[in-house]
Amino acid sequence: MIFQASRLIITVNHLHSLKSINRVWLQGDFRRNMHLLLNKTLINGEWVSSSSNTELAVTNPANGSIVGHVPDLDVHDVNKAIDAAHKTFHSNEWSSLTAKERSTLLKKWYLLLESNRNEIASIMTMESGKPLAESLGEITYGNSFVEWFAEEARRVYGEIIPTPQKQKRLFLTREPIGVAALITPWNFPHAMITRKASAAIAAGCTVVIKPAEDTPLTALALVKLAEEAGFPKGVFNVVTCSRKNVAAVGEALCTSKQIAGVSFTGSTEVGRILYRHCAEGIKKIGLELGGNAPFIVFESANLEKAVTGAMTSKFRNCGQACVASNRFLIQDTVSDAFTAKLLTAMKSLQVGDGKDQGVQIGPLINTAQLHKVSDIVEDARSKGAHIVVGGRPIPGKGELFYEPTVVANITPDMRLYTEEVFGPVVAILKFKTEDEALRIANDTNRGLAGYFYSENLNQVMRVSRKLEVGMVGVNEGLLSTAEAAFGGVKESGIGREGSRHGIDDYVEIKYICLGGLD
Ligand code: NAP
After folding, report:
1. Which helix (H) or strand (E) holds 246?
2. Which of 155, 241, 261, 307 could form a disulfide with 284 if both were Cys (CB 3.0 to 4.6 A apart)?
3. Is the Cβ–Cβ distance between 349 and 315 less than 8 Å?
4. Mean of pLDDT values over 191-214
C-alpha cells in the first residue's frame, strides 16, 4: 500500500508500473520513445493539423514546461470532423458490422490500452499534474469502461410485445442514434472519454470528441490506440482546440444537423449553455455536471473508516473531482475526535510534482483554478471561518500548488458552503440531529454524490433514501465503477454513464409494427 488516501485505486499491481515509469523518467529524455505523444489530431482516419495551421501549447502544471503542441481547430475543421463521422456512420463498412464485431474491436482497443498503460500514465501526469499512481488508477478505471461496453455491445436487446390485434406483431428495437459529440473535462482526461466513447461505439454510433484544452494529449493517445485496434476511419474524430475557439466549436457541435446527440461532462454553467444549443435541434443530451457533495459523519460512525473515506474522497486528484466531498458535516459529539484524526492523517500527505515517487497531491490544473480555490478560502476567512491548517498557495513548490487545508465553522453565507471548491480543502460544519444534517446536505441545487458514515442500520436506510443525490456512498468514500450507474440529480445533470444504462444516451427505441398477418 503506497498511499492510504487512494487506497482503492493504487494497488500493489501498480507498484511495478510506477517503478518502471520512474526509471524512464530518471533516465532523462523520457519522451524519446513515446509513440503516443502526438502533435496532430485524428479526423477521418488522417492525422492532421488545423486548417489555419495554428497550434496550442500544452503545459505541465507542476512546472510550467511545455509538454507538447496540438492543432488549434476552429469551426471549419470541426465541420470536417462532423462530416467524416456522419459519412462513416452511414457507410457499409461501419453500419453493417454486427454487435459482436463492434465488441471485438472494443476488446482489441481495451487490450492496447492495457498494454500501453505506462506511456499513457506518463502523458497524463505531464499534462494534468496528477500523481503517477493516480494516473495509473485512472487508466485502470477508464479502461474498465471499454471492457464493460465491449461486453454490453452484445446485449443491446429489443423487445417483442404481446399483440392486442391478431393480424399484427409488435417489435421494439434499439437503434444507434448516429454521430455523438463527446465534450470532456481535464480532471479525468482518460476515463471521461472512454466512459462515453465506448458506450457510443457499443451502440453503433460514431464520435467526435472534444477534449479539454489543458489535457488533449491523453485524448490523442487513446484514439491512436483505437486506430491501431482497427476501427474504420471516421469512427473516432478528435477536435483539439483552445479556449479562444471553444464557444464556437461547442455551438457547432450542438447545432449541426449531422450530430444526433451530445454528451458533456464539465461545469453546470457550460452544461446549461450546451443544453440551450441542443434545444434548438431537439437533440438528445447527456449532462454530467458539477457537484457539492456532503460527507456526513454520524456519532455511531467508525471514525477510523470515516477518516480513511474522507481522505480518499477529498484529496484524490488534489480535490479536483466532481464527486469529491465538498462539505463535511460532523455530528457535534464526534466533531473534535474526527477533526483530530483527520489532521493526523493529513500530516503524511506529500505535495509535489506528480512524477516524483511518493507524491500524493499534485498542482491544481491552471491559474484560474488556483485563483478560484484561493478566493473561496479567503471568502470563508473574511466571514469568520477558522482556518485549522493550510489555507494558502505554496509558491516554493511551483505556481499552482495549494496547501492541503481544513476550514472549520462554515456558515451558509460562505462560498465554501454553496460552491464546489475543486481543490484540497476540507470545509467542516457541525450538526446536532439527523434532520439538521439532511437539511444542510440537501441545501444545494447540486445533487451528484453524497457520503455518510453510520453504523446504525435504520439510519443507513433512512439517510440513503433522503439524500437528494444520484449516488450515495455509505461507509465508503470511493464509489465509481463501470458496473454502476454514474450521474446526478438537480443541476448535476441528466442521464447516467456506466452500467447497463450507459448505452441509453446513444440509442433510440424504434417500434416496428408488422401487419397484414393471417
Ligand atoms: P468546463 O469549463 O465546463 O469544461 C468542460 C469541457 O467543456 C472542456 O472541454 C471545455 O473546453 C469545454 N467547454 C468550455 N466552454 C465551452 C463552451 N462554451 N462550449 C462547448 N464546450 C465548452 O469544466 P471544467 O472546469 O473543465 O471541469 C470541471 C467541472 O466539471 C466541475 O464542475 C466538475 O464537477 C465537472 N465534472 C463533472 C463530472 C461528472 O461526471 N459529473 C466529471 C468530471 C468533472 P476548454 O477546456 O477548452 O475550456
Report:
1. helix 243-255
2. 261
3. yes
4. 98
pLDDT > 80? residue 480: yes
From the CA of 123, how far away is ligand 1's center (Å)?
A: 20
Ligand 1 neighbours (beta carbon < 6 A)? 183-188, 192, 210, 212-214, 243, 246-247, 250, 265-267, 270, 273-274, 288-291, 322, 420, 448, 493
Among 190, 270, 289, name the best residue to mutate to test ligand 1's pocket (greatest count of ligand atoms within 8 A of Cβ): 270
Q: Specify the CATH superfamily of domain 2-289+494-510.
A: Aldehyde Dehydrogenase; Chain A, domain 1 (3.40.605.10)
Q: What is the mean pLDDT of residues 99-111?
A: 98
The pLDDT confidence band at residue 436, using thresholds 50, 70 and 90, is very high
- Domain positions in the chain are 2-289+494-510, 293-481
Nearest to 191 by CA among 81, 113, 103, 100: 113
508 Cβ contact partners less than 8 Å away, ≥ 6 residues apart: 174, 175, 177, 284
d(C-alpha 472, C-alpha 294), whole Å: 10
- Do the Cβ atoms of 72 and 56 come closer than 8 Å? yes
Show which residues are catalytic.
Answer: 288, 322
- In this structure, what are the phi and psi dihedrals at residue 280, rounded to the nearest 5 degrees? -55, -45
Q: Which ligand 1 atom is at minimum distance from the Cα of 277?
A: 19
Q: Which of 295, 320, 337 is nearest to 469 (CA)?
A: 295
Q: What percent of the chain has pLDDT over 90?
A: 93
322 Cα distance to chain centroid: 7
- What pTM, to 2 d.p., does this model score? 0.95
- pLDDT by residue (tens digit) across 289-298? 999 999 999 9
218-247 pLDDT, tens digit each? 999 999 999 999 999 999 999 999 999 999
Same topology between domain 2-289+494-510 and domain 293-481: no
Per-residue model confidence (pLDDT) at position 16: 52
- CA dist 268 and 119 (Å) reads 32
Tell me the three cell numbers of residue 79: 465541420
Q: Is the pLDDT of residue 259 over 50?
A: yes
Distance 513 CA to ligand 1 centre (A): 42
Contact 15, 2 (CB under 8 A): yes
Per-residue 3-state assignment (H helix, E strand, C coil) for 292-322: CEEEEECCCCCHHHHHHHHHHHHHHHHHCCC
Ligand 1, residue 247: give the atom nearest the CA: 18
* Whole-number pLDDT of residue 33: 74
Fold of 293-481: Aldehyde Dehydrogenase; Chain A, domain 2 (3.40.309)
The protein residue with its alpha carbon nearest to ligand 1, atom 21, reads 250
Q: Look up cell 437528494; give the residue.
A: 468
For ligand 1, the distance from its centroid to the CA atom of residue 185, given in whole angstroms, is 4
pLDDT band at 8 (very low <50, low <70, confident <90, very high): very low
pLDDT greater than 50 at residue 11 = no
Instruction: Return the percentage of the chain with pLDDT > 70, whole number.
Output: 94
